[in-house]
Design goal:
The protein has three domains: 63 residues, PUA domain (Archaeosine Trna-guanine Transglycosylase, Chain: A, domain 4, Roll); 115 residues, Transcription Regulator spoIIAA (2-Layer Sandwich), CATH 3.30.750.80; 188 residues, Vaccinia Virus protein VP39 (Rossmann fold). A hairpin with a 2-residue loop joins strand 12 and strand 13. 42% of the residues are buried. It has 393 residues and is α/β, with parallel strands linked by helices. It starts with a strand and ends with a strand.
Length: 393
């Protein structure tokens, strides 16, 4: 039996522009008693078909899967996953020995809202951010195996912390297709341990690949400080780039163990690197100008719009502290991964920090997420990673 979401008059305008979200305030009434995660047909106020999508409880009522009247079945998932894989092969991040980790599905950016799939060698880590994608997880895993064939050994499902907590799904992380203990993957010729079992996100921040490569270009002969280092990706690239020394800082002792393991994996016996388990602000307070390349890549300061003001204050404070301590001729890589903070707001926070520290600062690069994290042109909210590379006089 079909289930319908009927919109209020005039509320289909955003859907005519192919925006993939329908907010609860746009809904006039519901027919057929859909359960959270069910596929529903979306109709305008006159009863005409507009879209198909996953019904959910909350401010976003429907995540649109398609604007065509079609079956959401195994062939649908295969077609969408094949399209995503074709893009990654075309841009050169998939199917190479030099790089075997990448994002295969980036939610709305790949017309699969609520779904993330990262590839690490022959293993896929899948995350659902909606109940609908959770309900379809086994179909998606089978479709993924069909599309990737021998390139895929196992699918690990990691959605304990990403699904709506009110859905009460009792979800536990674990393998849903095959099994694997091969947790080493290659990025641009460098090896990394991937902690998909207990690590943040899917186990590694794939979205900083291009920006890590840029750090490598600037690292030669410099003394590098990598704050909020997590797995130490920036640190490993700086080592390969010829840095004089590299210091990695994270408040988590487990992260420090991981960065040390990744350094040892690529540069065994190299004594240029040290890692510290310490609070970022406390460490910056103790700095005395010894670092001339600093990386600030903090966790999201704002998960939602309500936290925006405090987040901007946090970015300003953090960057001002770095500016105060960096010697003339230094380079600062500074980032925000907060979706609620836009590029202009982040740039203003960094501008304010530079003014507070009374430093002359030039922008060398404006950074963003890589091509395997595409932004649906109809869904600008998908642009979340912002970064600046700054010359500090």
């Amino acid at each position: 039996m079909s289930k319908f979401v009927v919109l209020r008059k005039g509320k289909e305008e955003s859907l005519k522009r192919f925006h993939p979200w329908i907010f609860s305030g746009a809904v006039h009434h519901i027919e057929g008693e859909p359960k959270e995660g069910d596929i529903v047909e979306v109709l305008n106020s006159e009863g005409r078909f507009i879209a198909l999508g996953h019904w959910q409880i909350g401010s976003i009522a429907v995540r649109v899967l398609t604007f065509r009247h079609q079956k959401i079945d195994a062939e649908f998932w295969k077609k969408r996953l094949s399209s995503a894989l074709d893009v990654r092969r075309s841009i050169g991040v998939a199917g190479t020995d030099y790089n075997n980790m990448y994002r295969l599905v980036h939610g709305e950016g790949d017309n699969l809202p609520g779904l993330i799939i990262d590839i690490y060698g022959k293993n896929a880590v899948m995350q659902a951010h909606s109940v609908g994608m959770h309900v379809c997880r086994m179909e998606i895993a089978q479709a993924l195996k069909s599309v990737m064939g021998e390139e895929l050994k196992a699918v690990y499902y990691k959605s304990e912390t990403t699904l709506p907590f009110k859905a009460s799904l009792g979800q536990e992380n674990g393998f849903i297709l095959g099994e694997s203990d091969d947790n080493i993957a290659i990025e641009n010729g460098l090896q990394f341990h991937i902690d998909w079992l207990k690590g943040q996100k899917t186990g590694f921040f794939v979205d900083q690949r291009d920006n890590r490569a840029l750090v490598e270009r600037y690292a030669r002969g410099r003394k590098v400080l990598n704050m909020f280092c997590y797995t130490g990706g920036f640190s490993v690239y700086a080592m390969r780039g010829g840095a004089e020394l590299v210091h990695s800082v994270d408040s988590s002792a487990k992260a420090v163990d991981l960065v040390n393991a990744n350094i040892a994996l690529n540069f065994p016996g190299d004594n240029r690197h040290k890692a510290f388990a310490e609070d970022a602000f406390r460490f910056l307070d103790q700095m005395d100008g010894q670092y001339d390349l600093v990386i600030l890549d903090p966790p999201a300061f704002a998960k939602h719009k309500d936290a925006l003001k405090n987040a901007l204050r946090g970015y300003t404070k953090l960057n001002a502290k770095a500016f105060e301590k960096m010697p003339p001729g230094s380079i600062l890589f500074t980032f925000s991964c907060s979706q609620a903070v836009n590029k202009d707001q982040f740039r203003m926070a960094v501008f304010t920090a530079a003014a507070m520290a009374r430093r002359k600062v030039r922008i060398l690069h404006q950074l963003h997420q890589p091509a395997d994290h595409p932004i649906n042109i109809y869904h600008p909210e998908g642009e979340y990673l912002k970064g600046l590379v700054l010359w500090v006089e």
